[in-house]
């Protein structure tokens, strides 16, 4: 089900969100609704607060970006394969690498895009949908979307 996306200024977007446990009610439905909402709004990622849920979960799909790469993008990001992933209770461990600018948008600030400078790589600790813990570095477009 496509959920309403809350706009910039909504209090849930500033709230410190709660961790999710395996007992979270209807978690599988929330995840599916987030995917549905993200794709419906032409997004590449969405976090639970953007659909008015103050919990620590986000989903991303950068495969769709990589599939749309032109020749220049393929040269810039030759190792980028993209991922489709759910991140639960993610913690940023560190950001490394030279900052680079890229034109970004946000589903909660529709029709606004800006060049944003971010480091090349982000290292996260997170859980997947089965609540297995992972620690991994993400770079390039995928790192940026995260």
**Uncertain runs:** none
The description of the largest β-sheet is: 5 strands, antiparallel
Please identify the oligomeric state.
Answer: single chain
Tally of contiguous helical segments = 4
What is the CATH domain class? Alpha Beta
Characterization of this structure:
- By secondary structure, the chain is α+β, with helices and mostly antiparallel strands.
- The protein has one domain: Peptide Deformylase.
- The protein has four helices and seven strands.
- It has a five-stranded antiparallel sheet with strand order 1-2-3-6-7. A two-stranded antiparallel ribbon has the order 4-5.
- A hairpin with a 5-residue loop joins strand 6 and strand 7.
- The two termini are 23 Å apart.
């Amino acid at each position: 089900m496509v959920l309403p996306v809350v706009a910039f200024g909504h209090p849930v977007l500033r709230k410190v969100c709660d961790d999710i446990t395996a007992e979270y009610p209807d978690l599988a439905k929330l995840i599916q609704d987030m995917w549905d909402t993200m794709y419906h709004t032409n997004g590449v990622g969405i976090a639970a607060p953007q659909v008015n849920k103050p919990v620590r979960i986000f989903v991303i799909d950068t495969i769709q970006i990589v599939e749309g790469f032109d020749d220049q993008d393929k040269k810039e990001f030759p190792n980028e394969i993209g991922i489709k992933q759910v991140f639960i209770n993610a913690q940023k461990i560190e950001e490394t690498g030279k900052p680079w600018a890229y034109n970004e948008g946000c589903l909660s600030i529709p029709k606004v895009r800006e060049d944003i400078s971010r480091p090349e790589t982000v290292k996260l600790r997170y859980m997947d949908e089965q609540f297995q813990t992972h620690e991994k570095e993400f770079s390039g477009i995928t790192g940026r979307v995260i």
